[in-house]
UniProtKB/TrEMBL annotation:
One of its GO terms (molecular function) is iron ion binding. This is 3,9-dihydroxypterocarpan 6A-monooxygenase isoform A. The keyword Repressor does not apply. It is found in: Membrane. The chain crosses the membrane at residues 6-27. GO terms for cellular component: membrane. Its cofactor is heme.
Length: 167
């Protein structure tokens, strides 16, 4: 008699424990639903690199036709969002610019760019806007472009000749 009581209590305990675990798993899945774009399943270390061919734009186009205009891919272990719709790209670049403007900076890039002090890898903020203003006024200003016009024309002719030799 005592054995059956213990077995009944053990069965009730394990049933209770299993139901608590199941309810908790369901609730955490419902609460913490990540708001990410859809994408294919990734491999643990290489992510989606196996899906990208020698022409990445064609691979991303194929993914966008299957999963929609915004696709999340993992380039190695780094998450990235590929946007193939002009309206969505405008929303990313104009409306939500501060959220998506920083780049992933690896230790090698951090070391080679002197702690991300250069224009290419500087984090978005007042320093980056200052560097952009200097670049636009000094490097890409009208006077500077006029000074190097002959070099641009020379490079254009050289490029044209190399293409003609290849064909």
């Amino acid at each position: 008699m005592a054995e059956t009581d213990i077995q009944d209590y053990l069965q009730l305990f394990f049933l209770w424990l299993l139901s608590i675990i199941a309810v908790r798993a369901i609730l955490t899945k419902l609460r913490h639903k990540p708001r990410r774009p859809p994408g294919p399943r990734s491999l643990p270390i290489i992510g989606h690199l196996h899906l990208i061919s020698a022409l990445p734009h064609q691979s991303f186009h194929a993914l966008s036709t299957r999963y929609g205009p915004a696709v999340q891919v993992f380039l190695g272990s780094v998450p990235a969002v590929v946007v193939s719709c002009p309206e969505l790209a405008k929303e990313f670049l104009k409306t939500h610019e501060p959220s998506f403007s920083n780049r992933f900076v690896s230790a090698a890039v951090h070391h080679l760019s002197y702690g991300s002090k250069g224009f290419l890898f500087a984090p978005y903020g007042s320093y980056w806007r200052f560097l952009k203003k200097i670049c636009m006024s000094e490097l890409l200003g009208g006077r500077t472009l006029d000074q190097f016009r002959h070099l641009r024309e020379q490079e254009t002719l050289s490029f044209d000749m190399s293409i003609r030799l290849l064909t």
